[in-house]
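Instructor's aside before we start: the two examples that follow are unrelated to each other. I chose them only because their records fit on one page, so don't look for a connection. First example below.
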Amino acid sequence: MPSISKCNVCANNVDADKELKCDACDKPVHTTCSGLSRAEIKCLNDKDRRIKFLCENCSSDRLQLGDLVKMMLEMRDEINALKKASSSTLSDAIYRENLISEMNERNLRSRNIIIHGLDECEGTIEDQKKEDLRQVVNVIDKVAPVSTDHIMIYRLGRAAMKDKVRPIKVVLNSRDDAVLLLKNKAKLPRNGKLYITADETLMQREFLKSVRLTLHNRIQNGESNLTIKYIRNVPTIVSSKNATPAQH
């Protein structure tokens, strides 16, 4: 049977399971005499509570303001930490998804090359495809000993406008074929019209664009003998009089 004691406010009996005890004098008070809300009483009954209850005789403030402020600040810090952790986890997840998507896209494009500067002929669609294939095979034969059997070709973009020809995407038989052609692309005449590039993703093109802008700014600031060279398939600004500029 629970013990019975006197309420320090009304002096009536109070059951132990319906009382609050002052954290200063340890005297019991009816929960109904405490003047606290249900939520506040629930907080005080929590074993891990961080606030103290003082009776009217010990303090005019039932809740110590300093402890309450401290608890609120701690809770704020905990909430901010949770938000930060949640945001970080979400950012990491998005980053991983984007990275996987980019890797898959690069893998799909790894056996492709883009040939720029091949004239577009007139005639039927079939005639145009035959002429495009003939020109592509001719370029490949000049660059490297790569099989052109079963290759696929596509003109990129809409129909050609005046004085502008569409590049051709070439899907080769293997990634090794694409690598070999890209390594030997300098064998083509350096007239600026006909050249070969890799089939790059949007991210790769944007990165190359930023590298070119950096190169331009450095040259404008007085640096010389700079060019862009592909190192481990990454466009990099190098300082070399003999470096062969990257064609992209």
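Example two begins here.
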Amino acid sequence: MPSKIFVVLWSERNYVVHREHAREPHLIADYANSFLQEFWNRIGKLPRGSSSEPRMACRWQAPPSGRLKLNVDASVRTGEGRIGIGDVIRDYWGVVVAAFSKTLVGIFSVDDAETLAVREGFSFVAQNGLYPSVVENDSLSTIQEITNYHLLAPNGLILANIKDLLLSVSCGSYRHVLHEGNIVAHMLATSAFQFPGDMFWVFSCSFFLSTFVLNDLVV
């Protein structure tokens, strides 16, 4: 329970720091109640006078203390002629620092879509002055392409752009992660098709995004 309250309070702290005003107390309380209700609903039980918290397994692994981690993913719907991209930046405590969910129009292979998701993620963090020490993606072939890229490859220009962005944000590690460790980014990518436009969150965490974070933490 304390960890869930911490997420709500930290999100509100970011809101105050970066928007220079606080929300009304009753709005914060309503958000906290909704957040906790969603948590209990997802684990399939409600608290009944017990102070003990159900055991949870965290599939997402935290970056080093004081650092940020970027998770990226893409979703391909060939019949629609567009792809969904989801990227999320979180800190050591698992708190969402920034995220986005967007679509790109075009016919892309799964590998190309994953590569574009990485590029969009790096562009996003660079534009917002964020510096993740770790970047994770659940496409092993994409990681291998970026690591061993060749300018004459079919997507060589995109890979070169990613390499430049890697240097600009001083990212120390780019690695493969299993799908279970990339759930929030995956959900943002698949949800991109449902929005009328691109969605961005910077130094805030909407209730919509909080449900994905809970889904990532609860087995």
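The chain is about 45% helix and 20% strand.
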